[in-house]
Write a structure and sequence with these properties.
By secondary structure, the chain is of the alpha/beta class. It has 15 helices and 22 strands. Pfam families: Aldedh.
Length: 493
Protein backbone atom coordinates (compact mmCIF):
# COMPACT_ATOMS: atom_id res chain seq x y z
CA UNK A 1 0.00 0.00 0.00
CA UNK A 2 1.33 3.43 -0.94
CA UNK A 3 0.92 6.73 0.90
CA UNK A 4 1.47 8.85 -2.20
CA UNK A 5 -1.26 11.45 -2.74
CA UNK A 6 -3.03 12.05 -6.03
CA UNK A 7 -3.78 15.78 -5.75
CA UNK A 8 -0.37 17.44 -5.67
CA UNK A 9 -1.94 20.86 -5.07
CA UNK A 10 -2.41 19.69 -1.48
CA UNK A 11 1.35 20.04 -1.02
CA UNK A 12 2.03 23.71 -1.84
CA UNK A 13 5.29 23.58 0.13
CA UNK A 14 5.29 27.30 0.93
CA UNK A 15 3.92 29.81 3.44
CA UNK A 16 0.58 31.44 2.69
CA UNK A 17 0.78 35.13 3.59
CA UNK A 18 -1.98 37.32 2.25
CA UNK A 19 -2.71 36.20 -1.30
CA UNK A 20 0.77 34.81 -1.92
CA UNK A 21 2.32 31.38 -1.46
CA UNK A 22 5.90 32.30 -0.67
CA UNK A 23 9.24 31.03 0.55
CA UNK A 24 10.86 32.00 3.84
CA UNK A 25 12.43 35.44 3.75
CA UNK A 26 15.93 34.01 3.58
CA UNK A 27 15.01 31.02 1.41
CA UNK A 28 15.84 28.43 4.07
CA UNK A 29 13.91 25.13 3.99
CA UNK A 30 12.88 22.60 6.64
CA UNK A 31 12.98 18.87 5.84
CA UNK A 32 9.93 16.73 6.63
CA UNK A 33 10.66 13.11 7.53
CA UNK A 34 8.62 9.92 7.55
CA UNK A 35 8.75 8.57 11.15
CA UNK A 36 8.41 5.02 9.81
CA UNK A 37 11.81 5.26 8.12
CA UNK A 38 13.31 8.59 9.25
CA UNK A 39 13.69 9.35 5.55
CA UNK A 40 13.15 12.86 4.18
CA UNK A 41 10.27 13.03 1.69
CA UNK A 42 9.33 16.74 1.52
CA UNK A 43 10.35 20.19 2.68
CA UNK A 44 8.67 23.45 3.68
CA UNK A 45 9.90 26.99 4.35
CA UNK A 46 11.80 27.56 7.60
CA UNK A 47 10.14 30.79 8.62
CA UNK A 48 11.61 33.86 10.27
CA UNK A 49 10.37 36.66 12.51
CA UNK A 50 10.00 38.79 9.37
CA UNK A 51 7.69 36.17 7.85
CA UNK A 52 5.66 36.10 11.07
CA UNK A 53 5.29 39.89 11.07
CA UNK A 54 4.26 39.85 7.40
CA UNK A 55 1.55 37.33 8.27
CA UNK A 56 0.23 39.65 10.98
CA UNK A 57 0.32 42.57 8.54
CA UNK A 58 -1.91 40.57 6.19
CA UNK A 59 -4.27 39.36 8.91
CA UNK A 60 -4.60 42.82 10.46
CA UNK A 61 -5.36 44.40 7.09
CA UNK A 62 -7.98 41.75 6.28
CA UNK A 63 -9.76 41.92 9.65
CA UNK A 64 -12.12 44.90 9.11
CA UNK A 65 -13.60 43.46 5.92
CA UNK A 66 -13.83 39.89 7.27
CA UNK A 67 -15.57 40.87 10.50
CA UNK A 68 -18.12 42.80 8.41
CA UNK A 69 -19.00 39.72 6.33
CA UNK A 70 -22.44 38.52 7.51
CA UNK A 71 -22.26 35.42 9.69
CA UNK A 72 -24.33 33.45 7.19
CA UNK A 73 -21.79 34.12 4.44
CA UNK A 74 -18.89 33.16 6.69
CA UNK A 75 -20.79 29.97 7.47
CA UNK A 76 -21.22 29.18 3.78
CA UNK A 77 -17.47 29.52 3.19
CA UNK A 78 -16.76 27.21 6.12
CA UNK A 79 -19.25 24.67 4.79
CA UNK A 80 -17.49 24.69 1.42
CA UNK A 81 -14.22 24.13 3.27
CA UNK A 82 -15.76 21.20 5.12
CA UNK A 83 -16.97 19.71 1.84
CA UNK A 84 -13.52 20.03 0.25
CA UNK A 85 -11.82 18.42 3.26
CA UNK A 86 -14.15 15.43 3.07
CA UNK A 87 -13.77 15.22 -0.71
CA UNK A 88 -10.00 14.87 -0.20
CA UNK A 89 -10.25 12.53 2.77
CA UNK A 90 -8.12 9.79 1.24
CA UNK A 91 -5.26 12.08 0.20
CA UNK A 92 -5.33 13.94 3.51
CA UNK A 93 -5.41 10.68 5.44
CA UNK A 94 -2.36 9.45 3.54
CA UNK A 95 -0.55 12.72 4.17
CA UNK A 96 -1.26 12.51 7.91
CA UNK A 97 -0.02 8.92 8.07
CA UNK A 98 3.08 9.74 6.05
CA UNK A 99 4.28 12.66 8.16
CA UNK A 100 2.89 11.63 11.56
CA UNK A 101 3.07 7.83 11.40
CA UNK A 102 -0.39 6.77 12.55
CA UNK A 103 -2.14 3.87 10.79
CA UNK A 104 -4.02 4.87 7.66
CA UNK A 105 -7.42 4.05 9.15
CA UNK A 106 -6.64 6.55 11.91
CA UNK A 107 -5.40 9.08 9.38
CA UNK A 108 -8.67 8.88 7.48
CA UNK A 109 -10.57 9.06 10.75
CA UNK A 110 -8.69 12.19 11.78
CA UNK A 111 -9.73 13.92 8.56
CA UNK A 112 -13.38 13.23 9.35
CA UNK A 113 -12.82 14.42 12.91
CA UNK A 114 -11.21 17.65 11.68
CA UNK A 115 -14.07 18.25 9.25
CA UNK A 116 -16.60 17.79 12.05
CA UNK A 117 -15.23 20.92 13.76
CA UNK A 118 -15.37 22.92 10.55
CA UNK A 119 -19.00 21.91 10.01
CA UNK A 120 -19.90 22.53 13.66
CA UNK A 121 -18.51 26.05 13.73
CA UNK A 122 -19.99 26.87 10.34
CA UNK A 123 -23.32 26.30 12.01
CA UNK A 124 -22.32 28.10 15.23
CA UNK A 125 -21.30 31.20 13.25
CA UNK A 126 -24.97 32.12 12.85
CA UNK A 127 -25.71 31.59 16.55
CA UNK A 128 -23.33 34.08 18.17
CA UNK A 129 -26.24 35.71 19.92
CA UNK A 130 -25.91 38.52 22.43
CA UNK A 131 -28.39 39.55 25.12
CA UNK A 132 -30.90 42.27 25.84
CA UNK A 133 -30.57 43.13 29.52
CA UNK A 134 -33.63 44.34 31.43
CA UNK A 135 -32.92 47.98 32.24
CA UNK A 136 -33.17 49.11 35.88
CA UNK A 137 -34.74 52.46 34.89
CA UNK A 138 -37.15 53.65 32.21
CA UNK A 139 -35.92 55.16 28.99
CA UNK A 140 -32.85 52.98 28.69
CA UNK A 141 -31.86 49.97 26.60
CA UNK A 142 -28.96 47.74 27.67
CA UNK A 143 -27.37 45.17 25.37
CA UNK A 144 -24.48 42.71 25.43
CA UNK A 145 -22.99 42.23 21.96
CA UNK A 146 -20.48 39.58 20.93
CA UNK A 147 -17.65 40.71 18.67
CA UNK A 148 -14.55 38.98 17.25
CA UNK A 149 -11.39 39.56 19.26
CA UNK A 150 -9.26 40.35 16.19
CA UNK A 151 -6.13 38.65 14.89
CA UNK A 152 -5.66 35.16 16.37
CA UNK A 153 -2.33 33.30 16.48
CA UNK A 154 -2.83 29.52 16.45
CA UNK A 155 0.05 27.22 17.40
CA UNK A 156 -0.63 23.53 16.92
CA UNK A 157 0.99 20.19 17.89
CA UNK A 158 2.20 17.28 15.78
CA UNK A 159 0.01 14.46 17.08
CA UNK A 160 -3.21 15.48 15.29
CA UNK A 161 -2.05 17.79 12.50
CA UNK A 162 -5.48 18.10 10.86
CA UNK A 163 -7.81 18.03 13.86
CA UNK A 164 -5.90 20.49 16.02
CA UNK A 165 -5.61 23.18 13.38
CA UNK A 166 -9.25 22.78 12.30
CA UNK A 167 -10.39 22.96 15.93
CA UNK A 168 -8.70 26.37 16.25
CA UNK A 169 -9.12 27.94 12.82
CA UNK A 170 -12.79 27.05 12.32
CA UNK A 171 -14.13 28.90 15.39
CA UNK A 172 -11.80 31.84 14.76
CA UNK A 173 -13.10 32.28 11.21
CA UNK A 174 -16.68 31.66 12.31
CA UNK A 175 -16.38 34.41 14.91
CA UNK A 176 -15.06 36.89 12.33
CA UNK A 177 -11.40 36.77 13.41
CA UNK A 178 -8.44 36.57 11.08
CA UNK A 179 -5.69 34.02 11.72
CA UNK A 180 -1.95 33.51 11.64
CA UNK A 181 -0.93 29.94 12.38
CA UNK A 182 2.20 27.87 12.88
CA UNK A 183 1.97 24.07 12.73
CA UNK A 184 4.40 21.77 14.51
CA UNK A 185 7.75 21.34 12.77
CA UNK A 186 7.28 17.56 12.57
CA UNK A 187 3.94 17.70 10.73
CA UNK A 188 3.54 20.88 8.65
CA UNK A 189 2.24 19.30 5.44
CA UNK A 190 -1.29 18.45 6.58
CA UNK A 191 -1.81 21.96 7.94
CA UNK A 192 -0.64 23.50 4.67
CA UNK A 193 -3.05 21.23 2.80
CA UNK A 194 -5.99 22.31 4.95
CA UNK A 195 -5.12 25.98 4.49
CA UNK A 196 -4.90 25.44 0.72
CA UNK A 197 -8.40 23.93 0.76
CA UNK A 198 -9.69 26.83 2.86
CA UNK A 199 -8.39 29.26 0.25
CA UNK A 200 -10.05 27.18 -2.46
CA UNK A 201 -13.30 27.31 -0.48
CA UNK A 202 -13.28 31.11 -0.64
CA UNK A 203 -11.56 32.31 2.53
CA UNK A 204 -10.36 35.75 1.37
CA UNK A 205 -6.64 36.59 1.11
CA UNK A 206 -5.14 37.62 4.43
CA UNK A 207 -7.90 36.09 6.53
CA UNK A 208 -5.95 32.85 7.00
CA UNK A 209 -2.14 32.85 6.94
CA UNK A 210 0.31 30.06 7.73
CA UNK A 211 4.02 30.17 8.55
CA UNK A 212 6.06 26.98 8.99
CA UNK A 213 9.27 26.90 11.02
CA UNK A 214 11.85 24.52 12.45
CA UNK A 215 12.26 23.83 16.17
CA UNK A 216 15.22 26.19 16.11
CA UNK A 217 13.29 29.06 14.56
CA UNK A 218 9.91 28.56 16.20
CA UNK A 219 10.74 30.88 19.14
CA UNK A 220 11.47 33.84 16.87
CA UNK A 221 8.27 33.26 14.88
CA UNK A 222 6.08 32.95 17.98
CA UNK A 223 7.84 35.78 19.83
CA UNK A 224 7.06 38.09 16.92
CA UNK A 225 3.39 37.35 17.48
CA UNK A 226 3.65 37.63 21.25
CA UNK A 227 5.26 41.06 20.95
CA UNK A 228 2.74 42.37 18.42
CA UNK A 229 -0.17 44.21 20.03
CA UNK A 230 -2.25 43.60 16.89
CA UNK A 231 -2.41 39.90 17.79
CA UNK A 232 -5.24 39.81 20.31
CA UNK A 233 -5.43 36.09 21.06
CA UNK A 234 -3.12 33.08 21.29
CA UNK A 235 -4.53 29.58 21.04
CA UNK A 236 -2.05 26.81 21.77
CA UNK A 237 -2.05 23.06 22.24
CA UNK A 238 1.14 21.56 23.62
CA UNK A 239 3.25 21.20 26.73
CA UNK A 240 2.60 22.97 30.01
CA UNK A 241 6.08 24.62 30.14
CA UNK A 242 5.51 26.20 26.72
CA UNK A 243 1.99 27.23 27.73
CA UNK A 244 3.36 28.98 30.81
CA UNK A 245 5.92 30.76 28.63
CA UNK A 246 3.17 31.97 26.31
CA UNK A 247 1.11 33.21 29.26
CA UNK A 248 4.06 35.13 30.69
CA UNK A 249 5.18 36.62 27.38
CA UNK A 250 1.67 37.65 26.34
CA UNK A 251 1.12 39.61 29.56
CA UNK A 252 2.68 42.81 28.17
CA UNK A 253 -0.07 43.08 25.57
CA UNK A 254 -2.75 41.27 27.64
CA UNK A 255 -3.77 38.87 24.91
CA UNK A 256 -6.65 36.47 25.36
CA UNK A 257 -5.36 32.90 25.75
CA UNK A 258 -6.68 29.42 25.16
CA UNK A 259 -4.21 26.83 26.46
CA UNK A 260 -4.73 23.08 26.08
CA UNK A 261 -1.70 21.72 27.86
CA UNK A 262 -0.26 18.54 29.35
CA UNK A 263 -2.20 15.77 31.01
CA UNK A 264 -1.66 12.87 33.38
CA UNK A 265 -4.97 11.09 32.99
CA UNK A 266 -6.04 8.48 35.54
CA UNK A 267 -8.05 5.44 34.42
CA UNK A 268 -9.82 3.78 37.36
CA UNK A 269 -11.39 0.32 37.35
CA UNK A 270 -13.59 -0.37 40.38
CA UNK A 271 -14.47 -3.86 41.53
CA UNK A 272 -18.09 -3.46 40.36
CA UNK A 273 -17.01 -2.58 36.80
CA UNK A 274 -17.73 -4.61 33.70
CA UNK A 275 -14.12 -5.73 33.17
CA UNK A 276 -14.49 -6.55 29.49
CA UNK A 277 -15.95 -3.11 28.84
CA UNK A 278 -13.18 -1.52 30.90
CA UNK A 279 -10.50 -3.30 28.87
CA UNK A 280 -12.13 -2.19 25.64
CA UNK A 281 -12.37 1.36 26.93
CA UNK A 282 -8.73 1.39 27.94
CA UNK A 283 -7.64 0.04 24.57
CA UNK A 284 -9.56 2.80 22.80
CA UNK A 285 -8.34 5.55 25.10
CA UNK A 286 -4.72 4.46 25.44
CA UNK A 287 -3.62 3.08 22.10
CA UNK A 288 -5.16 5.54 19.67
CA UNK A 289 -2.27 7.17 17.81
CA UNK A 290 0.13 4.82 19.59
CA UNK A 291 -0.54 6.48 22.95
CA UNK A 292 0.49 9.89 21.62
CA UNK A 293 -2.54 11.90 22.73
CA UNK A 294 -2.98 14.39 25.53
CA UNK A 295 -6.01 12.55 26.93
CA UNK A 296 -4.40 9.10 26.94
CA UNK A 297 -4.68 7.29 30.28
CA UNK A 298 -1.25 7.69 31.82
CA UNK A 299 -1.95 6.01 35.19
CA UNK A 300 -4.21 2.96 35.43
CA UNK A 301 -5.65 2.11 38.85
CA UNK A 302 -7.39 -1.25 39.36
CA UNK A 303 -9.13 -2.30 42.56
CA UNK A 304 -7.34 -5.16 44.27
CA UNK A 305 -10.08 -7.78 44.03
CA UNK A 306 -10.25 -7.54 40.22
CA UNK A 307 -6.63 -6.52 39.54
CA UNK A 308 -5.27 -9.85 38.34
CA UNK A 309 -8.28 -10.69 36.16
CA UNK A 310 -8.15 -7.25 34.55
CA UNK A 311 -4.41 -7.43 33.88
CA UNK A 312 -4.78 -10.87 32.28
CA UNK A 313 -7.50 -9.61 29.92
CA UNK A 314 -5.55 -6.44 29.14
CA UNK A 315 -2.26 -8.23 28.47
CA UNK A 316 -3.97 -10.59 26.02
CA UNK A 317 -5.38 -7.65 24.05
CA UNK A 318 -2.19 -5.58 24.13
CA UNK A 319 0.00 -8.52 23.13
CA UNK A 320 -2.14 -9.07 20.04
CA UNK A 321 -1.76 -5.53 18.70
CA UNK A 322 -0.04 -5.34 15.31
CA UNK A 323 2.78 -2.80 15.11
CA UNK A 324 4.03 -1.50 11.80
CA UNK A 325 4.03 1.34 9.27
CA UNK A 326 0.90 2.80 7.76
CA UNK A 327 1.80 1.11 4.48
CA UNK A 328 0.82 -2.18 6.15
CA UNK A 329 -2.97 -2.25 6.06
CA UNK A 330 -3.32 -4.26 9.27
CA UNK A 331 -1.10 -2.00 11.41
CA UNK A 332 -2.76 -0.85 14.62
CA UNK A 333 0.22 0.93 16.19
CA UNK A 334 2.58 2.98 14.06
CA UNK A 335 6.02 4.41 14.76
CA UNK A 336 6.51 7.07 17.39
CA UNK A 337 6.98 10.55 16.00
CA UNK A 338 10.77 10.70 16.38
CA UNK A 339 13.82 9.41 18.24
CA UNK A 340 13.26 11.73 21.21
CA UNK A 341 9.84 10.20 21.77
CA UNK A 342 11.19 6.64 21.74
CA UNK A 343 14.01 7.57 24.11
CA UNK A 344 11.52 9.01 26.60
CA UNK A 345 9.33 5.89 26.48
CA UNK A 346 12.37 3.69 26.96
CA UNK A 347 13.53 5.81 29.89
CA UNK A 348 10.12 5.59 31.58
CA UNK A 349 10.01 1.81 31.28
CA UNK A 350 13.58 1.44 32.51
CA UNK A 351 12.90 3.72 35.50
CA UNK A 352 9.70 1.85 36.41
CA UNK A 353 11.43 -1.53 36.33
CA UNK A 354 14.30 -0.20 38.44
CA UNK A 355 11.75 0.90 41.05
CA UNK A 356 9.92 -2.43 41.25
CA UNK A 357 7.54 -2.55 38.31
CA UNK A 358 7.30 -5.74 36.25
CA UNK A 359 6.86 -5.94 32.48
CA UNK A 360 3.89 -8.19 31.62
CA UNK A 361 4.06 -7.66 27.87
CA UNK A 362 6.22 -5.53 25.57
CA UNK A 363 8.73 -3.21 27.21
CA UNK A 364 11.23 -2.81 24.37
CA UNK A 365 11.97 -1.25 21.01
CA UNK A 366 10.95 -3.18 17.92
CA UNK A 367 13.16 -3.61 14.87
CA UNK A 368 12.33 -6.43 12.47
CA UNK A 369 11.19 -7.09 8.92
CA UNK A 370 7.80 -5.50 9.62
CA UNK A 371 9.03 -2.62 11.79
CA UNK A 372 11.98 -1.67 9.62
CA UNK A 373 12.76 1.69 11.22
CA UNK A 374 14.17 3.18 14.42
CA UNK A 375 11.01 4.62 15.98
CA UNK A 376 8.90 1.60 16.94
CA UNK A 377 8.15 0.58 20.52
CA UNK A 378 6.22 -2.50 21.58
CA UNK A 379 2.84 -1.92 23.28
CA UNK A 380 3.59 -2.46 26.95
CA UNK A 381 1.82 -3.37 30.19
CA UNK A 382 3.58 -2.79 33.52
CA UNK A 383 2.31 -3.91 36.93
CA UNK A 384 3.32 -2.79 40.43
CA UNK A 385 3.52 0.82 39.27
CA UNK A 386 3.51 3.53 41.93
CA UNK A 387 3.60 7.30 42.29
CA UNK A 388 7.42 7.48 42.59
CA UNK A 389 7.96 6.38 38.99
CA UNK A 390 8.54 8.78 36.12
CA UNK A 391 5.68 7.22 34.18
CA UNK A 392 3.32 8.29 36.98
CA UNK A 393 4.60 11.88 37.09
CA UNK A 394 5.13 12.70 33.40
CA UNK A 395 3.17 12.00 30.25
CA UNK A 396 4.83 9.01 28.63
CA UNK A 397 3.18 9.80 25.29
CA UNK A 398 3.58 6.27 24.05
CA UNK A 399 1.99 2.80 24.16
CA UNK A 400 2.80 2.03 27.82
CA UNK A 401 0.17 1.11 30.44
CA UNK A 402 1.41 1.26 34.06
CA UNK A 403 -1.07 -0.50 36.38
CA UNK A 404 -1.38 0.30 40.08
CA UNK A 405 -3.40 -1.76 42.55
CA UNK A 406 -5.69 0.13 44.99
CA UNK A 407 -7.96 -0.82 47.88
CA UNK A 408 -10.57 1.89 48.53
CA UNK A 409 -12.45 4.58 46.67
CA UNK A 410 -11.04 7.33 48.88
CA UNK A 411 -7.51 6.05 48.29
CA UNK A 412 -7.82 6.07 44.50
CA UNK A 413 -9.49 9.49 44.34
CA UNK A 414 -6.61 10.95 46.32
CA UNK A 415 -4.09 9.25 44.03
CA UNK A 416 -5.91 10.30 40.86
CA UNK A 417 -5.95 13.94 41.96
CA UNK A 418 -2.35 13.91 43.19
CA UNK A 419 -0.99 15.63 40.10
CA UNK A 420 -0.67 19.23 38.95
CA UNK A 421 -2.58 18.30 35.79
CA UNK A 422 -6.29 17.96 35.18
CA UNK A 423 -7.17 17.39 31.54
CA UNK A 424 -8.95 14.02 31.32
CA UNK A 425 -9.93 11.23 33.71
CA UNK A 426 -11.71 7.91 33.20
CA UNK A 427 -13.38 5.37 35.45
CA UNK A 428 -15.49 2.25 35.15
CA UNK A 429 -18.24 1.38 37.64
CA UNK A 430 -21.82 0.13 37.56
CA UNK A 431 -22.77 1.71 40.91
CA UNK A 432 -24.91 4.77 40.16
CA UNK A 433 -24.15 6.44 43.48
CA UNK A 434 -20.41 5.88 43.06
CA UNK A 435 -20.54 7.23 39.52
CA UNK A 436 -21.72 10.63 40.72
CA UNK A 437 -19.46 10.70 43.77
CA UNK A 438 -16.36 9.99 41.70
CA UNK A 439 -17.35 12.25 38.81
CA UNK A 440 -17.67 15.20 41.17
CA UNK A 441 -14.51 14.34 43.12
CA UNK A 442 -12.14 14.07 40.13
CA UNK A 443 -10.19 17.27 39.45
CA UNK A 444 -10.38 17.18 35.68
CA UNK A 445 -11.88 19.15 32.83
CA UNK A 446 -13.07 15.97 31.07
CA UNK A 447 -14.40 12.79 32.67
CA UNK A 448 -15.18 9.55 30.84
CA UNK A 449 -17.62 7.34 32.77
CA UNK A 450 -17.69 3.82 31.32
CA UNK A 451 -16.39 5.34 28.08
CA UNK A 452 -12.91 5.55 26.59
CA UNK A 453 -13.56 7.68 23.49
CA UNK A 454 -14.33 11.20 24.69
CA UNK A 455 -13.72 13.73 21.94
CA UNK A 456 -16.58 15.16 19.89
CA UNK A 457 -17.12 18.47 18.16
CA UNK A 458 -20.25 19.11 20.25
CA UNK A 459 -18.39 18.66 23.56
CA UNK A 460 -16.22 21.23 25.39
CA UNK A 461 -12.59 20.09 25.37
CA UNK A 462 -10.13 21.51 27.89
CA UNK A 463 -8.56 21.14 31.30
CA UNK A 464 -8.11 22.58 34.77
CA UNK A 465 -5.09 23.20 36.98
CA UNK A 466 -1.86 23.09 34.94
CA UNK A 467 -3.63 21.50 31.98
CA UNK A 468 -4.66 24.99 30.93
CA UNK A 469 -7.83 26.98 30.41
CA UNK A 470 -10.32 27.76 27.69
CA UNK A 471 -12.52 25.28 25.84
CA UNK A 472 -12.47 24.02 22.26
CA UNK A 473 -15.49 22.66 20.44
CA UNK A 474 -19.12 22.88 21.57
CA UNK A 475 -21.30 25.94 21.99
CA UNK A 476 -18.68 27.28 24.41
CA UNK A 477 -15.84 27.12 21.89
CA UNK A 478 -16.92 30.15 19.87
CA UNK A 479 -16.89 32.42 22.93
CA UNK A 480 -13.12 31.99 23.31
CA UNK A 481 -12.73 33.94 20.03
CA UNK A 482 -15.10 36.76 20.96
CA UNK A 483 -15.40 39.49 23.52
CA UNK A 484 -18.51 41.10 24.93
CA UNK A 485 -19.35 44.74 24.33
CA UNK A 486 -21.89 46.30 26.67
CA UNK A 487 -24.06 48.98 25.02
CA UNK A 488 -26.24 51.31 27.04
CA UNK A 489 -28.58 53.68 25.18
CA UNK A 490 -30.43 56.27 27.21
CA UNK A 491 -33.00 59.08 26.79
CA UNK A 492 -35.45 56.81 24.98
CA UNK A 493 -38.44 58.40 26.70
Amino acid sequence: MTLEIENKSLMPGRHLIGAEWREAGDGRRLDVTDPATDGVFASVPDGTAADARAAVDAAHAAFPAWRAVPAKQRAQILKRWNDLVLAHQEDLGRLISREQGKPLAEGRGEVAYAASYIEWFAEEATRANGDIIPAPVTGRRMLALKEPVGVVAAITPWNFPAAMIARKIAPALAAGCTVVCKPAEDTPLTSLALVALAAEAGVPPGVLNIVTASRERTPEVVDAWLDDSRVRKITFTGSTPVGKHLARRSADTLKKLSLELGGNAPFIVFDDADLDAAVEGLMAAKFRNGGQTCVCPNRVFVQASVHDAFVDKLAARVGALKVGPATQADSQIGPMINARAVEKIERHVRDAVSRGARVVVGGKRLRDARCDGPNYFAPTVLVNADATMECSCEETFGPVVPVTRFETEAQVIAAANDTPFGLAAYFYSTDARRIWRVTEALESGIVGVNEGALAAEAAPFGGVKESGYGREGSVYGLDDYMHIKYVCQGQLQ
